[in-house]
Each structure stands twice: as structure tokens, then as C-alpha cells.
Amino acid sequence: MTSTSALPASFDSTHESRGLLARALSSDTPRSRVLSLILLVIVLGIAATPFLFSGSQPLSTAAKICVFIVLVASYDLLLGYTGIVSFAHTMFFGIGGYGIAIALERLGPTWGSAAIGIVSALALSAVLAIAIGLLSLRVRAIFFSMITLAVASAMAVLASQMSAITGGEDGLSFQLPAELRPAFRLLSEPVLGVSLNGRLVAFYLIFFVALAVFLVLLRIVNSPFGRVLQAIRENEFRAEALGYRVVAYRTAASVISALAATIAGALMALWLRYNGPDTTLSFSIMIDILLMVVIGGMGTMYGAIIGATLFVLAQSYLQVLMGAGSAALAGIPILPNLIHPDRWLLWLGALFIVSVYAFPGGIVGHLRRGSSS
Prior knowledge:
By secondary structure, the chain is mostly helical. The protein has helices at 9-24, 33-52, 56-79, 89-107, 111-136, 141-161, 163-166, 198-221, 224-234, 236-241, 246-272, 277-281, 283-296, 302-328, 335-338, 344-358, 362-372; strands at residues 172-173, 274-275. A two-stranded antiparallel sheet has the order 1-2.
């Protein structure tokens, strides 16, 4: 028998690092080498974006991916893990954006103002989520969905009409705290050719907050609480018979999901330095969230990373790629017009239809099944 003292130090460090990784992932590892590699490439690629790509668009795309990973993961907690179909998710997204925007625009561009804005937004989202949960979660399926749609529509109309507070249809533009402005310099000299300015500080603030929220959500769905939610999703009558208060658990899930969406909205507003009805409250964003959840894989949480990344990249660069393809095919009948940049939404929809047809359980589900077979 080999004594533990005879084991090399590298074994202990490797074993400890794997233990830390398992705890960070709440023991819910990707369970697929291909999926692990994809997730690692995405996370490291986002983190290294400022040093890998020049220009503002790649950085903005990476920041938007971080925001939507949080937003999609929070919605997957409802749809994928609890079986709740809600159309009010963008309402909480908008509350987070308006909380930051109103506080920084009215109280001044300070960290104290930002803290007041986010805390107020979180409190309002929690109250509304509890109210919706207690008043509506006792009704079934489509009726609850229609109630959440009505509430979200009312909030969008309210935001558009309360111009004295929200800026109306024009929204609110505001200044950020000094440390997040482009003129701020963290270091006087560039690092790897990149100037460490306030814009970069804002990006990494969004990145690490998004990472932290995602890990918290991953921990929640893999806790006993998360397993009860999955039991409710599978058969709420059986869960009720086992002694679980279904309405209480579903309301708690709604509150947690709403709070995470509120944080995502605040991060989006911080990055854009603007918030308006079309930025966070639009129903088209709700459709986008649904697509990302389905494409990545419902009830997987890791699907939020893949779904958000693919969707945002397609939104940001599909039109550019189609423009290049149309120019390259100039002179060939029909084809240049068929892939003209103006038709990018048509092809985006076609790509999603193909992906849903090819991966009915989402990309994560497909990769996990392929790994286990």
C-alpha cells in the first residue's frame, strides 16, 4: 500500500484544484469533454477580449454576452427548472436598468448613487415578484403567462409615459462614476498594448459580477431547494402530496429569478450609459431570451452561456458576414440578393429553426447525451 506521504506534491495540488472547481460549480460539472472545452473557450475568450481584439464593437459584444448570460440563466431557473412560463422577465430587466439610470441621473454620478439605484431596484423587483407569485401562481399555465404578459406590458407603458422620471420614449442618458469613464486611467502605461482605462474597468466589473451571479444561480439549482423546484416541474401534485408548499417554492424561485434579472438590467445600463423602453423593456427581448434558453438547453444552466453567446454573436456579426458574402457573389444571379444584409433577420430565424430542429434538447443536452452514449 502506498502511503499518502509518498504521493507527489503535484498530486495534492491537482486534487485540491479539482475540489475547488467542483465546489465552484456546485458539483454540477459539464459532464462532457466537448462541452467543457466550449465553455472554457467562451469564458476565457470573453475575459481576454480587450487583449485579443481591437475596437469598441468586440468589447461591447463581450459585455452584452455577459449581461445576457445572467438574464438567460435567471429565466432558465423559472422555465427550465421550475416549469414556469413567464413573460414578465424583461420587466425586472428594465427595473434594474431604470434603477441605475434614474439614480445616477438624478443623484449624480457617484458610487453611492449607483448603490441606492441598485438596492431600490432590487427591492422593487422583489416586491413585484412576490405580488405576482402570490396573486397569480395559483392559476394554471396559460392564465399565469397571460397575467405576466399584462403586467409587463403595463410596466412598459408606464415607463414610456412617466417622462418626468424615466425620460419617456427617449430614455435617460447619464454619467458614470469617475472610475468607469473612458478618461480614467488605472495605470499610466498600457499593458500588452491595451490602455487600462475606465471603460476596461467597467467591462471587468460586468464580467466578474456576471460570473458571480451565474455561479450563485448554479449553486441554487443544485441545492435541495433546486431539486424541489425540479420535482415541482415534473409533477406539482406529487410534490404537494409530499408536503412541499408548491406556491411558496414557486414564489421564491420567481423572486430569485427577478433579482438576477434586475442585476442584469443594471449591468446593461452601466455599460450603455443609457436606459430606455426599447433597451430593456421591449417584448422582442423576451422572445430573444426564450430563443437563447431553448437553443442552449432548458434546465441545464450551462445552456445560458452557449445560447447567449451564439445569439449575441449572430446579432452582432451575421449582418456583416452577409454583406461580405453578398459582395463576393456579385455577378451571380439571385445569390447576392438572397444573402443581402437587409435579409439578416430572415437568415437569423432560419438558423435558429435549424438549431432547434437539430438539437431538440438544446446544445448542452445534445453534447451530454453524446458523451454518455
